[in-house]
Design brief:
263 residues, 43% helix, 4-stranded parallel β-sheet, Rossmann fold
Length: 263
């Protein structure tokens, strides 16, 4: 028996490490972030789109200007067919990843008139629920620092071609980290509230446990979807955090204590 699954997370939570580990097994679908692309641009949220409503010109100057992109002309049926085919391995398992900020896009693209997220998700699986896997990062400060560096550099994963310790050009700014911390905290609250309201008990995987033993976390998901847990591979990615990240985390905590920023 094969079972589909959906990884529910927020940005910089470790979800990429998990889904790439699952993809490497060859039996757990081809989990991607299918729901991040705006139909108006065919692009994921761009750096400045994370800062809607922010007017500080010095902060915005640290982020790339918007690219209009290209309109996605696929209708709902073609989009759904591409999504189902793109996430499934030969054994029939489908895997995907959904961030809370992408839920409205999912509802819109599936044409779910009721506005119900669960109905939209079930429509992907012919009316059934997938296995829900909730990946979360308890330390939102480290998460927000990681995201602040990523939105400036547009580097979202470890790059083996960049020497360790190389300056990536990102600039510390407490206000930018604070804005992202608030966004990430709200995403986490929203997932918790939604699971509770729907009576869903997801498979919980937290960032520290995932990073400490990616293979064990991957094996838990494999077992939950009816696949051989011994197929869990060695970690395919390295964490991007480094001494600079730790320095910024400490610096932000001091700034947050003084200015009341979210932690």
């Amino acid at each position: 028996m094969t079972t589909d699954y959906l990884v529910c997370a927020s940005q910089r939570s470790g979800s990429t490490l998990l889904v790439e580990s699952l993809a490497a097994t060859g039996v757990a679908g081809r989990p991607q972030e299918f729901f991040q692309y705006f139909p108006s641009s065919s692009q994921a949220p761009q750096p400045r789109e994370w800062f809607a409503g922010v007017t500080d010109p010095e902060l915005l100057a640290l982020l790339d200007p918007l690219d209009p992109g290209t309109v996605d002309s696929r209708d709902a049926e073609q989009w759904l067919a591409d999504l189902r085919g793109g996430g499934r391995t030969a054994n029939g398992v489908w895997g995907g990843k959904l961030m809370w900020n992408q839920t409205s896009l999912l509802i819109t693209r599936t044409r779910t008139a009721s506005g119900s997220l669960r109905t939209a998700i079930r429509s992907l699986f012919d009316g059934a629920d997938p296995v829900y896997v909730h990946v979360h990062r308890p330390d939102v400060v480290s998460q927000a620092v990681s995201m602040w560096r990523a939105v400036q550099t547009r580097v979202w994963r470890d790059d083996p071609d960049v020497a360790e310790g190389t300056d990536d050009g990102a600039v510390y700014r407490a206000e930018g980290i604070a804005h992202l911390a608030a966004v990430l905290l709200e995403q986490q609250r929203s997932w918790r509230q939604w699971f509770t309201s729907e009576g869903i008990e997801p498979l919980e995987i937290d960032f520290p446990t995932l990073v400490a033993d990616p293979a064990k976390a991957t094996a838990r998901v494999l077992e939950a979807i009816g696949q051989d847990p011994t197929l869990a591979p060695a970690p395919p990615l390295k964490p991007q955090s480094n001494a600079r990240s730790a320095e910024w985390v400490a610096r932000y905590r001091a700034d947050a204590a003084q200015n009341g920023y979210p932690v």
